[in-house]
Amino acid sequence: MKSKRVLKLGILLLVGITVLALASVVASKPKEVPLVRASHQPCMHALPTILATNFDWWKDIGIKVSFHYFVSGMPQVEAGQAGEWDVGAMGTVPALFAGIKYKQPLIAISNDESVTNNLMVRPDAFTTWLKDPKKDLKGKTILCSTISTGHYAVVAYLKKLGLKEDDVKIVHMEQSAILSAFLSGQGDVAQTWAPFNYLMEEKGMKVLSHGKDAGVVIPGAVVATKKFADQKPDLVVKWLEGYMRGIDFMIDNPRESAKHLGKYYREKCGINLSDEVCLKEFELRPLFRTKQQIKMFERKGGKMSTVDTWMDDLAAYFVNVKKIEKKPDPKSYITDKYIKMLAQPKKK
């Protein structure tokens, strides 16, 4: 009888030791760090994510971030719907279409790129065929990345002149193709955005117009896919924390940031620009800190926010050119939820 009790106690002791050993293994096992997949293009609005990676901020924030590269916005949008990325930055035109079609949320503004979405001509244009743009542009060919912020700048300029899109010939090309085609003599006008406009300028091309000149504001959009934003809002905010920290660094340290940007252009995009040329990005493209963005997204007294108005004007343009039937309600895809969550005091 006694031996049975001893055996039973031995078994219980063994079980206890096993449980404690397993608990120790579980406790000592490092917690898996969640992955957030960020999508970007060959543009300055990729730099905040790059800075956060270069300075290892993600480790402090508690996430891993992978970088996914796209040449333009619409392929980026479709890849997001296919589940290839979670968060990122893009032009507001693809962000608008993604908001209409997929309810993809616009969660912050990357920069104001009104000046760097422009139209360029060859250096002799103003002394040869382009003396009266309203008259001389009719029937001319514009190389353009369509359904983009650059396209918006083109049509805004035509509208300023009293012209319609049908008055010119729009030929769709991606930006790298526009650069090579225009420099080889194709087309009459080239629509470009940074950094391709700087490459054009290095070859002597001249700016005809840009978004600000045409009277429109062209912001850049920070976005998340709807699925990721709905299911993992905490991870959206963690990534946004690193992104906005990058924007703060860019505002406070433009020269150092320009070096990081130049390295990104060279190594990832195959674009060689000097640090001084990269510094122009910080002179021409205003950036906004978190507190500024909260104000820009604020809807007071039932009125549209600043961001709502920018996007509503953009949507009105696409209604006018019959690319969409009606303007969407900005509240259906523009949200200050995540930027406000970011601004809340962190729990200890």
Describe the structure.
With 348 residues, the chain is an alpha/beta fold. 50% of the residues lie in helices and 15% in strands. It has 16 helices and 10 strands. It has a 5-stranded mixed β-sheet with strand order 2-1-3-10-4, with helices on both faces. Helix 7 (149-161) links the parallel strand 6 (141-144) and strand 7 (169-172). The radius of gyration is 25 Å and the shape is globular. The mean pLDDT is 91.
Concise structural overview:
This protein is an alpha/beta fold and 348 residues long. Helix content is 50%, strand content 15%. Strands 2-1-3-10-4 form a five-stranded mixed sheet, sandwiched between helices. A five-stranded mixed sheet has the order 7-6-8-5-9, sandwiched between helices.
Low-pLDDT segments, ≥5 res: none
Structure summary, number of beta strands? 10
**Per the principal axes of the C-alpha atoms, what is the gross shape?**
globular
Fraction of residues in helix: 40-55%
Name the beta content range. 15-25%
- Spatial ordering of strands, largest sheet: 2-1-3-10-4
Average pLDDT works out at 91
Order of helices and strands: HEHHEHEHEEHEHEHEHEEHHHHHHH
Compute the number of helices: 16
Structural class: alpha/beta
> Tell me about the biggest sheet?
5 strands, mixed
User: What Rg is obtained from the alpha carbons, in whole angstroms?
Assistant: 25 Å
The separation of the N and C termini measures: 55 Å
